[in-house]
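Illustration: DUF1800 domain-containing protein.
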Amino acid sequence: MDLKAAIAAVRFGQGRRPGDPIPTDPVAWLDSQLAPGLPGPALPEDLPKDLPALYLAAAEDTERLRTGGQGRPNQQLINRAETTAALGLEIAGDQGFRERLASFWTNHFSIARSRVQYVAGHYVREAIRPHVTGRFEDMLMAVVRHPAMLGYLDNTASVGPNSPAGQRGRRGLNENLAREVLELHTVTPASGYGQADVTAFAAVLTGWSFDGARPPYGFLFRPNAHEPGEKTVLGRRFAEGEQGGIAALHFLANHDATHRHLATKLVRHFVADDPPPAAVQTIHGVLRDTRGDLGAAAKALVRLEAAWDPPLGKFRSSHDYVVAALRALEAPIEVADRAFGGLQYLGQPMWNPPAPIGFPDTSRDWAAPEMMVRRIEWSNGIATRGAGRDAAALAEAVLGPLCRPETLRAASRAGSARDALTLVLTSPEFHRR
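Result:
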């Protein structure tokens, strides 16, 4: 395996499984995972038939899972079915770049699974996955209109003061969704927006709600709660009604400040904690010139010279680390439930960040001493799955030229096969991508 193939697997993908084919053209291999128009939750068509079955079951059997025998949603059952299905695709699949993009955009548009009950998986499947290689404005629209985001950021409780509902004294304006869309999801404070823009945008979004009793949890505009009149956000006027909100989201999605923000985050995730300005400028230009084509941006990312520069500078998050370790051990899809527990233990519970900003994306946030000790403990526990494997051969198959001679020597001197595998899985190079 040459260096570029190794980098493609760990930096853009989710780590190699020892039996994975080695691409002769790593860039073309990554491009092949960006094909548009995949059906349903955008699962690759060429995956083994048993691989997407668990994931699709979570989508197709939602009604069965919604009830725990008493007519009420069974939140725990649905959450576990959804999360383990998604993890199963990451652990056993061969579309790591696409899965990493889905994870990246899910974190960009973070919701807390613990807050939105059984719609978290539906949110990822329907609002994120279909758009990871589409246009950002379509993803933004799907996200903001989805019950998970509307509920998580309390927009269902937002009522225009001068609306019929507001005049009756039922609640008032809630700015949570408007603030986070401006601050985190689109233009950021770099655009120069102020509190007046937040308040006006919150008024634009009044009435945006959903009917939780009506599957598939569809968006619902409530005119009686909508603030009447024209509103101005960032100097642009928007008409009252649902169409005003749609127009505002299209405007924000295609704002130059949004494109620069997205470019910076993408380069930080795929290249370096301190994004090289030239790389950011390149991706910014692609997003600007294509009006937010995320597939074009992804293709441009894999063509950045800086993205292929060793040594690998990014430190794997707990999610990346757990998935990569299980892939290295060629774990079957059935261990996804154990992966879910591993993420809890290592501080990155699936789809459940502590705040709307999502999980962090820099080395200093994941390399704390206590977290490293936990990774060693967890890795030693799962190393039993590699019983009988030669640690040096596994390291060569998974890391190739990225593996240091020091790691191979330490593994050769280990007291047991399990210890040797633990040394490989906790080596400095395995922690990086």
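Reading the tokens back as a structure: Confidence is low (pLDDT under 50) at residues 37-63, 65-73.
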